[in-house]
Specification:
Length: 638
C-alpha cells in the first residue's frame, strides 16, 4: 500500500485519531479534549471544547517564535506601481491597532463585519483584526454590484462595513464608496458605521457615520487576541446557489485552522519561511484560505497581487512575481493561463525570468482542461496540479499530494481524494457506481475539519441543499467518476451553477432578473462553453403576447439589468429572443439540451418533449446569431 493510501485510509477509518494528531500543529489556548462530536442534525463538529484565536496562531505566535522580521505579506500592485513588504512584527502591530479601532466602534466577539475591498494589504488587516476580536467577517468581492452587496448586508447584519475608497482594474478606477452607500440604502438593515480606507487614485467623500481608516487607527490602543471556541464562526462567505439568494457559507475557527495547516504540508508542500503566491482575490474562498490564512498559519510569506494575469502590463506578470519573490508554490485558476496563452502562445515572456524557485503549480476554480494542462506541462519543469474544491469545503477535496507522496498526473483529473474526504460517486438510486461510470459526487459524513458548518441563519437550507439528497452524504453538486486506478475526474455541475472565469454564478438568479422585465413572458439562462472563461451565460427569452418593442433594445435592457443587479463579473452579454422554448410535457425547460446545442453537440429529440419543433426553432435561432458552436450541432434521429 502506498504512503498516500495508508494515510487516506487512516483518515477515513479513524478520523478522530487522525485529526487529533493534525491539531497538534496549532498553538491552542486550550487543546481540545473532544475531537469529533455531532450536532442535533448529525453534522460533524470538530474540536468542540478547544480554544484558540486564528489571528494569534497566524501572526502573534510567529513573532513570539522569532519570525518577527520575516515578511508576512508582500504586496505587489502593478496597477498603482507600488510594492510593500510587511513583516510579521509590523503586521501584528497594524492588525492589533486596527482591531483597537474596531473595538472603539463597538465591535466585539460574535459581531459581523462586512468587508468590501480590493487586493490591498488593508483587506487582510481588516480580516485578521476581526478574527483578533472574535468578530465574524464577511468579505464581498469588489466585482459585485450594490444589489448583491445589499443582499449580503441584509443577511449578515454587520455592525460595521469596511471599504476601500476604490478598486483599480486594468484601465479604470472604480469608486467603491458609492456602491457601499447605495447598498446600505437598499438594505433594510443599517450598520452602525463604515470605515473607509482612502486610496490616492480616488478619495471617497465621507458622510455621517463614516470613519477614515487612518484617523481611526491613529491613537487606537492595541487590541489583544480574544480566545474563541473552535466551533465559533470565523467568517461567513456568500456563494451562488441555485436561487437568487446567495448562501452564507459558515466557517468555524478551529477545524478550519487545523485543515489549512495540514494542507500546507500535505498538499502545498511548504515549510515555514517559504513563499506562496495565490493569484486570486480575497473575495473568494481561494483568497480566504490560501492568500489570507493558510500561508501565515504555516509561517510562510503570502503575496497579495493587485493585478491581472495579462495587461498589467503584459502576459509575463506571473512569471515576474515568481522570479522576484522566489515563489515556491503558485496557485491560480485555469482561466488565467488561458488568458496568458492567448496573448503569449509560445510563452516567449517566460524567457525573461528565472522561475527556478518554483516547485509546484496548482490550479482550481474550474476543471483544468486538457489543452491548458498540456500547454503548462510542456512549458514548465514542475508538476502541474489540478485540485478540486468548493467554497463550502474551504480546502481541497481532491488533489495530488506532494507533501505525502506525488502521484503521476493524468490530464483532466484532480488525482485522488485528500485525506479526510470520503469521496464516493452515487447513481440516481444512491448506489455506488462502477469505475468509469459517471454519477453524483458526494462525500460521506463526517466531513473533515474546515468544511462549512451551516448556512448563516438558514439551517433548513443547509439540510435541503446538501444533506437531503443522499442521507449520510454531503452533495457536492458536481458530477464525475473514478477511473480504474482511483483517479477522480470532476466533469461539471449537476445544478444551475455555472463557472465564468473561475467565478461561481447562478443562472437561476439571472433568470429571476431577466424574468422580472415587464416584456418577458418566459426565459432560460444557460452556461455555454467559452474558450477563455470556461463558460459564459446566455439568455433565451420569450416575449409577452402583444410585445411590439424593438428586440435589440430589449436585449440591451436585459443585459444591463443583470450587470446592474449582479455586477460586471456576471459577463452576461448575449440574449436571444425566441418564439418557443423546448420543454418536457410536464413543463420543464430542457436546459441541458439547449446547452449541448449551443456547444455544438449533436442532439436527439427526447421522447418526453412537448413540441419537437420548438427545439429545431431554437437551434435555427442560435445558428443565425452564431451562438457558441451551435452551427456544428446536428439533429439526430432517435
Ligand atoms: N472589481 C470590480 N470589477 C471587477 C473586478 C473587481 N474586483 N474584477 C473583475 N471586474 C470586472 C472587470 O473589469 C470586467 O468588467 P467589464 O465588463 O466592464 O470589462 C468584468 O468584471 C469581467 O471581469 P473578468 O471576468 O475577470 O474578465 P476580464 O476580461 O477582466 O479578465 C481574466 C479575464 C481571465 C484575466 C480574469 O477573469 C482572471 O484573472 N481570472 C482569474 C480568476 C480567479 O482569480 N478566480 C478566483 C478563483 S481561483
Ligand atoms: P467555488 O465555490 O466558487 O470555489 O466553485 C466551486 C465549483 O467550481 C465546484 O463545485 C466545481 O464545479 C468547480 N471546480 C472548482 N475546482 C475545480 C476543479 N479543479 N476541477 C473541476 N471543477 C472545479
Amino acid at each position: 500500500m502506498s504512503l498516500y493510501q495508508q494515510t487516506y485510509q487512516q483518515s477515513v477509518e479513524n478520523p478522530e485519531t487522525f485529526w487529533a494528531e493534525q491539531a497538534r500543529r496549532l498553538p491552542w489556548f486550550k487543546f481540545p479534549s473532544t475531537i469529533l462530536s455531532y450536532d442535533d442534525q448529525q453534522h460533524a463538529r470538530w474540536f468542540d471544547d478547544g480554544e484558540l484565536n486564528i489571528c494569534y496562531a497566524a501572526i502573534d505566535y510567529h513573532v513570539e517564535q522569532g519570525r518577527g522580521d520575516q515578511p508576512a505579506i508582500l504586496w505587489d500592485s502593478p496597477v498603482t506601481q507600488t510594492k510593500q513588504a510587511i513583516t510579521y512584527q509590523a503586521l501584528r502591530d497594524r492588525v492589533a491597532q486596527f482591531a483597537g479601532g474596531l473595538a472603539r466602534l463597538g465591535v466585539t466577539k460574535g459581531d459581523r463585519v462586512v468587508i468590501y475591498m480590493p487586493m490591498v494589504p488593508e483587506a487582510l488587516i481588516a480580516m485578521y483584526a476581526c478574527a483578533r476580536l472574535g468578530a465574524v467577517h464577511s468579505v464581498v468581492f469588489g466585482g459585485f454590484a450594490p444589489h448583491e452587496l445589499a443582499v449580503r448586508i441584509e443577511d449578515a447584519e454587520p455592525k460595521v462595513v469596511i471599504a476601500a475608497s476604490c478598486g483599480i482594474e486594468v484601465d479604470k478606477v472604480l469608486p467603491y464608496k458609492p456602491i457601499v452607500d447605495q447598498a446600505i440604502s437598499l438594505s433594510s438593515f443599517k450598520p452602525d458605521a463604515c470605515v473607509v480606507f482612502q486610496r490616492e487614485a480616488h478619495r471617497a467623500e465621507l458622510h455621517e457615520g463614516d470613519h477614515d481608516w487612518q484617523t481611526l487607527v491613529a491613537d487606537a490602543p492595541f487590541a489583544d487576541c480574544v480566545p474563541v471556541k473552535a466551533t465559533d464562526p470565523l467568517y461567513v462567505l456568500y456563494t451562488s446557489g441555485t436561487t437568487g439568494k446567495p448562501k452564507g457559507v459558515m466557517r468555524d475557527t478551529g477545524g478550519y485552522a487545523v485543515a489549512l495547516a495540514y494542507s500546507m504540508e500535505a498538499i502545498y508542500a511548504l515549510n515555514p519561511g517559504d513563499v506562496m503566491f495565490t493569484a486570486s482575490d480575497v473575495g473568494w474562498v481561494v483568497g480566504h484560505s490560501y492568500i489570507v490564512y493558510a500561508p501565515l498559519l504555516r509561517g510562510c510569506t503570502t503575496i497579495v497581487y493587485e493585478g491581472k494575469p495579462v495587461k498589467t502590463p503584459d502576459a509575463g506578470g506571473f512569471w515576474r512575481l515568481i522570479d522576484e519573490y522566489k515563489v515556491k508554490s503558485f496557485f491560480t485558476a485555469p482561466t488565467a493561463f488561458r488568458a496568458i496563452k492567448k496573448e503569449d502562445p509560445d510563452a516567449k515572456l517566460l524567457a525573461n525570468y528565472d522561475i527556478s524557485s518554483l516547485e509546484h503549480l496548482y490550479v482550481a476554480g474550474e476543471r483544468l482542461d486538457p489543452p491548458t494542462f498540456h500547454w503548462l506541462d510542456d512549458l514548465l519543469d514542475v508538476p502541474v496540479i489540478d485540485h478540486w474544491w468548493q467554497t463550502e469545503t474551504g480546502w481541497p477535496i481532491a488533489a495530488n499530494l506532494p507533501g505525502i507522496e506525488s502521484a503521476p498526473t493524468k490530464a483532466g483529473s484532480a488525482t485522488f481524494p485528500v485525506p479526510g474526504f470520503n469521496v464516493q460517486i452515487l447513481d440516481r438510486d444512491g448506489e455506488q457506481t462502477d469505475p468509469m461510470q459517471q454519477g453524483s459526487v458526494v462525500i460521506k459524513q463526517p466531513l473533515p475539519p474546515g468544511c462549512l458548518t451551516g448556512i448563516w441563519r438558514d439551517p433548513q437550507r443547509f439540510h435541503s441543499a446538501y444533506m437531503a439528497a443522499y442521507p449520510g452524504y454531503y452533495l457536492t453538486g458536481d458530477g464525475g467518476y473514478f477511473d480504474e486506478e482511483g483517479y477522480l475526474f470532476i466533469m461539471g455541475r449537476t445544478d444551475d451553477v455555472i463557472n465564468v472565469a473561475g467565478h461561481r454564478l447562478s443562472t437561476g438568479e439571472m433568470e429571476e432578473i431577466v424574468g422580472a422585465h415587464p416584456a418577458v413572458a418566459e426565459c432560460a439562462v444557460i452556461g455555454i462553453h467559452d474558450e477563455l472563461k470556461g463558460q459564459l451565460p446566455i439568455g433565451l427569452v420569450i416575449t409577452k403576447d402583444g410585445f411590439d418593442g424593438d428586440e435589440a433594445t430589449l436585449e440591451a435592457e436585459l443585459i444591463s439589468r443583470v450587470r446592474e443587479h449582479i455586477g460586471p463579473i456576471a459577463c452576461f452579454k448575449q440574449v436571444l429572443v425566441v418564439n418557443r422554448l423546448p420543454k418536457t410535457r410536464s413543463g420543464k425547460i430542457l436546459r441541458k439540451l439547449l446547452r449541448n446545442i449551443a456547444d455544438g453537440k449533436s442532439f436527439g429529440i427526447p421522447s418526453t418533449i412537448d413540441d419537437p419543433t420548438s427545439l429545431e426553432d431554437v437551434h435555427a435561432a442560435m445558428c443565425e446569431r452564431s451562438v457558441g458552436a451551435s452551427g456544428q450541432a446536428k439533429s439526430l434521429d432517435v
